[in-house]
Amino acid sequence: MDRRTFLRVSGAVPVAGLAGWPPPDDWERLRKRLSGPLFRPGDPGYPEAKQGFFTMYDDRVPAAVVGAARVEDVQAAVGFAARHGLPVAARSGGHSYPGYSTVDGGIVVDLSRFSGVEARPDGRAVIGAGARLGPIATTLAAAGRVLPAGSCDTVGIAGLALGGGVGLVDRKHGLTCDHLEAARIVTADGRVRTVSRAADPDLFWALRGGGGGNFGIVTGFTFRTVPIADVATFKLTFPDGAQAALFAAWQEWLPAQPDELWCGVNIDAVTAVASGTFLGSEARLKELLDDLVRRVGTAPAERGARVLDHLSAMRAFDEPESRPGAVAARAAYVGTSRMLLRAAPDPAAVVEVLVRDPAVGTLIDSAGGAIARVGARETAFPHRSALASFQFLHGAEPANGGEAGARRALAAVRDGLGPEFGTTGYVNYLDPEMPDWAEAYYGVNLPRLRAIARKYDPRGIFAFPQGLSEPRSTVHIGET
């Protein structure tokens, strides 16, 4: 069932909405209220305005894209969507794996104009919800600061932080959401709230790992940052055939490593690579890596390490050849995930599942350290004790079987792993076919998150197929 059908059957979208609803005059009244542009089908710029990151969803036809320029534009869009029973979705970087930010038949609130990044003297950063990770890192680096986050320049801060935010220094500094101090959000009642531990603390809790789009439209964040430091980066490329030995050694080696070391593993049918970062000396890094190599029992075919400034180090991991799927241009691929809850007793069996299809790539991101020192219920992100996250990727070009073929291939990997992976997944790698998706993404925090969604979105204004809000009936908020 696609999004439009889901919402129509649930009663959240009037059937007339599929054939010209709302009336043209109502759209024109909305257009006049906005400071930013409104793009409707047939308008100049609409084909570009509706695009997200993934090309597979270019055939979707939003009823409108609101190029929000100020928070009042977001309020107007939410009120209009609520009054007319239209689905509404926020778009920051547009990297939603199922394309949920390109809402067919509804309103896309494009936050790209909320792109400001302010590095304050007290070490805090005020960041618009439409800012991308590349400009954020560049601006903060100029002020001698870092916000722990991912490495892909084009990813939007909103989706990343709201789902948790894994990155290359998070064993030392924690997830991106752990640095959130306040957020400005437009909720379903049209109110603008600035939430924190002191103001709407339940909603603030939910925004730290509860997933993007679930509770309203966030327009801005205040984060704590950390001082910038040089980073030693490394890469060990092992010969084909060493995949099982590398994974077995890595999962036993990692938990004993200092927080300053982050090490990910890339595995596919021909690849066995360990790479990462170290906030320390090259000499100490060499000792740690020598230990890993001894455990693998096979010398790497290539080995490299170098000390870089933080910005250069993060950019090194954004190169397509460094991490499959880390590409700058628009792309066609799909992903899914599992969390490794404990060391696998049969690592060779795990790797056999990972390499069975040569078109599937696996990115294993190390956890532990500072991530694990936050309780599972302290924020909405539940997977605090996991050893690692596994992300599985597959190209979705027509030559690879398209999106449907890619999802079939990924499902075989996702569901073929052992009990040490459990019913788990990372909400920032949304998979529309994830079994028991709500339990997988939210774990012990699911009941509380659903209660908060009912409190702040009782009529399901922000409902979507894998959202926490339940679609009910049309609510009238404000005027058109």
UniProtKB/TrEMBL annotation:
Family matches, as InterPro entries: BBE, FAD-bd_PCMH, FAD-bd_PCMH-like_sf, FAD-bd_PCMH_sub1, FAD-bd_PCMH_sub2, FAD-linked_Oxidoreductase, Oxid_FAD_bind_N, Oxy_OxRdtase_FAD_BS
Domain of life from the UniProt record: Bacteria
Keyword Flavoprotein: yes
PROSITE patterns per the UniProt record, alphabetical: FAD_PCMH, OX2_COVAL_FAD
Listed cofactors: FAD
Cross-referenced Gene3D superfamilies: 3.30.465.10, 3.40.462.20, Uridine Diphospho-n-acetylenolpyruvylglucosamine Reductase, domain 2
Location of the FAD-binding PCMH-type domain: 58-228
Molecular function (Gene Ontology), one example: oxidoreductase activity
Family listed: Belongs to the oxygen-dependent FAD-linked oxidoreductase family.
Protein name: FAD-binding oxidoreductase
Source organism (scientific name): Amycolatopsis eburnea
